[in-house]
Each structure stands twice: as C-alpha cells, then as structure tokens.
Amino acid sequence: MTRNLHVTVAAIAERAGRFLLVEETVAGELLINQPAGHLEIGESLPQAVIREALEETACDFRPEALIGLYLWQVPGSDLTYLRAAFCGAMGEPQPHRELDSGIERTLWLRRDEIVARQPQWRSPLVLRCVDDYLAGHRYPLTLLVDLLPHA
Fold first, then answer.
1. What CATH code is assigned to 4-138?
2. In CA terms, which of 25, 66, 124, 125 is 20 to 30 Å from 134?
3. 38-84 pLDDT tens trace
4. 36-44 long-range contacts, Cβ below 8 Å, gap at least 24?
C-alpha cells in the first residue's frame, strides 16, 4: 500500500500554564490544533514553524527546542503525518496581520480545558505534544540538519 506522507510542523507555546491553540474550520467542522502546517519546498523545519505560527496567529514565534517527532496515520485512510513539534517563545499579536484562511481565532487553554475539548481535536497529536512538553521533552535545534541549498 502506498502512503500519502505529509511533513508538518507545530508550535507549542505556553504562558502561565495555558497553551496557544487555534480554532480552525476543516471540512465544515470547527476543530482545535496547535499553530501548525505543512513544510514547503525549500524550507527548513524551524523556518516552517515560524511561518506557520505567524500565518495562523499573527504572532512571531521563536523556536527554542524540538519537543519531538510524531508519526500518525489517519485511521481508515492512507494519510500519514510526520510532525515536528517545537516549543518556543510567542510574541504579541501584530494587529495589521490577518489570520490564515480557515483560522477562526486563537485560544490560550489549560491542559484540562484541552482535554475537555477532545471531540474538537484536529488529531491526537494535540494533547500528546502538550503532554510531552509538560514532561520536559526538549531536544536542541542542532539535532536538525539542514542540507537545503541557500540563496
């Protein structure tokens, strides 16, 4: 069976016990997820998470560490996601920036509030990344080797 593999990134940002999430409309359904998205051609993983966080939250994100790499297959499909989750510092919203298409709003939720909204998770990676962050999983960004050509 051929797999449809997607490489994605996610920003895990925490302030005073609350985690930054986005509410997004996907196929007509309102879901929650970390600021996340697909790696684009020519981008490094840290560049992708900076871009995705800005597009989805209108805030600058500075990745400080890799929390983990996550392989998840969507049940009943050939879709497989490889997610690189980064923790880091989130700046203040830039009022002149619009949120990406499909993003309804940003939310800062405690872990228990995230658990309570389980039916709205975009994937099980939402809570797993938070839990790994809370467990202290941190890997240096130097773990990632960028062999991309630079302009």
1. 3.90.79.10
2. 25
3. 999 999 999 999 999 999 999 999 999 999 999 999 999 999 999 99
4. 36/8, 36/9, 36/10, 36/11, 36/83, 36/122, 37/8, 37/9, 38/6, 38/7, 38/8, 39/7, 39/8, 39/9, 42/148, 42/149, 43/148, 44/144, 44/146, 44/148
